Amino acid sequence: MAAVNFQTLFGMGAYLVAMIVIGLWYASRSNSNPEEYFLARRSFGPWLAALSAEASDMSGWLLMGLPGVAYFYGLSDAFWTALGLFIGTWVNWALVAKRLRIYSQIADNAITIPEFFSKRFHDKKRILLAIAALISLGFFSVYVGSQFIVFGKLFGFVFNADNYFVAMVILGALLVMVYTLLGGFMAVGMTDLIQGLLMVGALALVLIFGFFHAGGAEGIAQNLADFPRFVDFFGIATPEMADGAQQVVNGVPRFGAGASYGLLTIISTMAWGLGYFGMPHVLVRFMAVKKTSMIKRSSMIAVIWCFISMSAAVLIGLIGRAIFPALLTSSGDAERIFLYMGVRFFPPLVAGVVISGILAASMSSSDSYMLIVSSSLANDIFKDLIKKDAPEAMVMWVARIAMLAVTVFGVVIAVSGSDSIFSVVSYAWAGFGASFGPLILFSLFWKRTSFPAAVAGMITGGAAVVIWKTQIKPLGGVLGIYELLPAFILSCIVIVVVSLLTAPPSKEIQAEFEKARTAEF
């Protein structure tokens, strides 16, 4: 192993050891019962709730996927996506966080999103719970796989061993599984807090050093000036491709004339923000806040973190193209631009800590996804549907086995699917956003929402994402919009129509709704 790799590995290794220690520290307390393991007994403070939510949300997509899009296609796609996500983050904290925290406790102390849906509508037959749990299993397995792709790219880069991608994926998956399995939700939250701070610090450092290395704003503008529509808010660069790679002539990447980035495309791209209303790994952080009075402060922390992080990620992609114009010639390879900049600008040991920001991003997301999948299998399916009298110790063992199973499945997804983190994440994001998002909003804010409407809306949203993605979107044109937007709208329409056509909720359900409007915890 080269000296640079050894020192870089040492910096990353110190970070990994710290995460495992945190898992061991919380192991005894977190494994006491399912509520402690899956929701930490609603004990999160403002900083823990905010940074845990945002770090688990952004994932390796923030440090690899988003800069990669900016590097390969220019400003517009990355900017409008980031803007939509920023607005979605702000609205989600402002609109949903407090009401969900209160309502989930009033609804018989629900500790997962599928359980909240079931208890919110007094679903005695657990139909909603089963559907929501199965949707969680399907889309979160894809999500887990997307983060394991990050591990493969990261470790392959550090060890200069891209041929060992599968081994690198397995290594990263095992590391995350160990501390998540041991420490549960509290360990996940505490590691996410540290990882969130590391992510924003790494982004800021790479951005600052990259900015000056490129010659400041003037140097960056000059270097990007020859790439048509690369820094255009309403246009997009079009790399000239051959055999899956951008053409490079005499060290200069080749671009076409560029294309327009019209209003419909902007709306479609910003629709990413709608996904926040249905993200279980974010929503469960709202449910875990200790007191509702803390949520305002948490929201301020979260919004500021998002603004700094996403702005830096987009700018890093642009600056990376200015410094290394012909280095990365495919959209998948472009997602390594943060890695190249981190290694180029810092000594090996410091570089190890900086690029651990990517490791932090992926670990903070994959641990949350794995924990939620295990909670769906153990708490929602096994305990609530299969064996209602299961002792807590048995539920905990089922959760551990489920986590092992989803780890294996995530590895399979990672090694057999797309190598683009952005494309894999976008599909799972749409699935959750359209399946759960509309129902969360209507459950919290419309008393007339009926049980049949909840079932129909959830199924419609999930099915519409799959159908639009596979059958309609390939037709192109107006139909080529991001599948989350039409699926979200269809789900909302179905919920309203079916609610008005069916009997109103019972007096007990309506009384709980009114209580959730005014209660404080």
Task: Give the topology, please.
Layout: H1 3-25, H2 27-30, H3 34-39, H4 46-73, H5 75-106, H6 113-120, H7 127-159, H8 165-213, H9 216-224, E1 235-236, E2 241-242, E3 245-246, E4 248-249, E5 252-253, E6 259-260, H10 263-270, H11 280-288, H12 295-323, H13 331-334, H14 337-345, H15 348-386, H16 392-416, H17 421-445, H18 451-472, H19 484-501, H20 507-518
Helix pairs in contact: 1-8, 1-15, 4-5, 4-8, 4-11, 4-12, 4-15, 5-11, 5-12, 5-20, 6-7, 7-8, 7-15, 7-16, 7-17, 7-18, 8-12, 8-14, 8-15, 8-16, 9-12, 14-15, 15-16, 17-18, 17-19, 18-19
Structure notes:
By secondary structure, this protein is mainly α. Helices cover 75% and strands 2% of the residues. The strands form three sheets. A two-stranded antiparallel ribbon has the order 1-6. The chain is globular. The termini are far apart.
